[in-house]
Amino acid sequence: MNHSEFLRSQIRTRAQTWATKNNLPYYLSLGNPPTVLFEEDINARSHGNFHSDSWRSINSNPLWRKRLGKAHSQKEKLPEGKRENAKELDSSNSSDALLMNIFCFPNSLPRLSKLMGCINAAVMPESGFKARINLHAGSLDSTEIDMKWHGVLVESKLTEKDFTQKQKATVFEYQELMSVFHVDLLPSNNDEFFGYQLLRNVLAAAQHNCKLIVLLDQRRPDLLKEWVGVHTAIKISTLRQNCSYRFWQQLAMECPPMLRDFLEEKYGL
Known about the structure:
Number of strands: 9
Number of domains: 1
Order of helices and strands: HEEHHHHEEEEHHEHEHHEHH
Number of helices: 12
Distance between the termini: 20 Å
Strand content: 5-15%
Shape: globular
């Protein structure tokens, strides 16, 4: 079974039903099967990909609002008339949009702090944290973590195919790779390491003395398997204990009732 395509199909169906029921502006990508993308209403007071309360909270916070401006990375797959203004978080498949729907919703943080291991729920989460992981050359890489919440780094995944792979020569450029991982245990083939994004996330957690939580959907056992492969190779026991995963479904259970209903209807959580 292709778990990614199965989840995409479920979310696409729910997104179109959500849009039709609430008379929300949306369009379809050029892919086969297509992806549902939402748009702001004319007055920018709402956006179909967000709960209305989350949307208002995001727009009242300059750092959160900045995240909304991230341009869509595959504009060639969109209708020509939509390409100029399309954003990553317009997509119904966006794990970032789901993340912000949950953590930017009013009064959700105290409910989520214990599950996420955050000791100070009063601190606002930072979206798009620049990890700047050390490289051997004395430079820093461009890794961007989905969210940082008071000592907790959060990597979110939803319908993405995998955690990507990278040439071994490139991965060995990371200064602390050998001290953080049993490299011979990392998932790989002759040329590449698998779970490249996870490798960077763990290295970022080690460098910044943070915990790491990877957010996954219970309908993606393939991603969980990939995470377990990387997690097993972490050399430092305390770091290994501080790196874990949660399911979106677990977060949904802790959310305020109005948000929980939205997550069930739109995402099936």
